[in-house]
Design a protein that fits this description.
alpha/beta, binds 5-amino-5-deoxy-1-O-phosphono-D-mannitol
């Protein structure tokens, strides 16, 4: 049931404050301001040498964000691959390794094959899945369920942000177990996560602005998305969403890579989306934007009030997000990114919930 929405995707985008809230309530104890991850005790994070993550598509981008978190908050090395590569590359699996699989459906063929490979090679298996009775869930030692509810739109939206919520809680848990997150830091991080539902409501208010700026986008043939840190995977997610929904060719790049090639593509016909909260590396992104502006590129900047004030007016359009703690930025900034591709597709008249050539669950190779 689409309720009052035109498409399932719109409904699912707007459900996010609620379903992220449901998901978080399973993994954090807001009263005590502590993470409390059911099943996590089965993994000996203290003695872990490495986490291996495999997933496909949007779930892979959630894993890429989690890599930054596990490494930063838990000082735990993470190796991540798209599952279609991981399953055939015969990577050696050593002692004290934990393999983590991320999948909305829990049925993706390549992800499942990667899981079975790790299992046969003796790794402990965990899965972040949305469908608890799925094959990936059944074959895992520990399941971290996302409580996103059924996702009908082929383009993943709410499953992605719920995956990030679970992964953030797990990274904090790992950090605490390994002694890299102390009590005060845990309190700060858990409070930050607890603020997500309210911040997501605020982020959704940018929809009117996004609808207006999306109209001219429906006439472009290519677009670039740039981000740094945990917003780099989000840039790739934005490009994937635009491709899937509006069939516009798009690429996501780490902003620092701009000079190493993609800058050659910039001209006045090229929209460049910059996903950049005002954080410790914001200044670097401002210089990237100046480089784009100097070549006539059309910048659409997604940032907060401070970021907008310090952007030096290089952007043609600015989408303002609420101020957020850095751990929640990729979750909150996912919402405008989703809405941009949604509204562009609506203007183009493509089949938003069932884009051409795509299946909701890829159960064959
Ligand atoms: O069910 P899964 O999470 O395993 O699916 C993985 C990908 O097929 C999926 O995220 C795909 O990339 C979506 N169409 C993205 O919007």
């Amino acid at each position: 049931d689409k309720g009052n929405y035109r498409h399932f995707m719109a409904k699912e985008i707007h459900e996010q404050p609620e379903v992220i809230g449901h998901t978080l309530s399973r993994y954090i104890d807001l009263g005590a301001r502590k993470v409390d991850v059911p099943g996590a005790a089965a993994i000996d994070f203290t003695n872990l040498n490495r986490i291996l993550i495999s997933a496909c598509g949007t779930a892979y981008y959630a894993g890429l964000v989690a890599k930054y978190w596990f490494e930063k908050y838990a000082r735990l090395p993470v190796e991540i691959d798209v599952a279609s590569e991981f399953r055939y590359r015969e990577t050696p699996i050593g002692k004290n390794e934990f393999a983590l699989f991320i999948s909305q459906s829990g049925e993706t063929a390549d992800t499942l094959a990667s899981l079975r490979y790790c299992k046969e090679n003796g790794a402990k298996i965990g899965a972040v899945v949305n469908v608890p009775e799925s094959t990936i869930a059944r074959e895992s030692d520990v399941v971290f369920q996302t409580i996103a509810g059924p996702e009908i739109g082929v383009a993943s939206t709410k499953a992605f942000t719920c995956q990030l919520a679970v992964l953030a809680a797990l990274a904090i848990h790992a950090g605490r177990s390994r002694g890299f997150v102390n009590e005060d830091q845990e309190t700060e991080l858990v409070e930050a996560l607890g603020a997500i539902p309210g911040l997501a409501v605020q982020a959704l208010k940018s929809e009117i602005k996004i609808e207006t700026l999306s109209q001219p986008l429906s006439r472009v043939s290519d677009a670039l998305y740039l981000g740094r840190g945990t917003n780099f995977p989000l840039a790739m997610e934005g490009a994937l969403k635009l491709k899937e929904l509006s069939y516009i060719h798009a690429e996501g790049y780490a902003a620092g890579e701009l000079k190493h090639g993609p800058i050659a593509l910039i001209d006045e016909n090229m929209p460049v989306f910059v996903i950049a909260p005002h954080d410790g590396i914001y200044e670097k992104t401002v210089s990237n934007m100046q480089e784009v502006a100097a070549r006539g590129g059309r910048i659409i900047l997604i940032t907060d009030e401070r970021g907008a004030a310090e952007s030096g007016d290089v952007a043609q359009d600015v989408v303002i997000m609420p101020d957020v703690h850095e751990i929640v930025a990729p979750i909150i900034y996912a919402l405008p990114v989703q809405m941009i591709s949604y509204h562009t597709a609506v203007f183009m008249g493509t089949d938003v919930d069932q884009p051409r050539n795509l299946a909701k669950s890829v159960t064959v190779e």
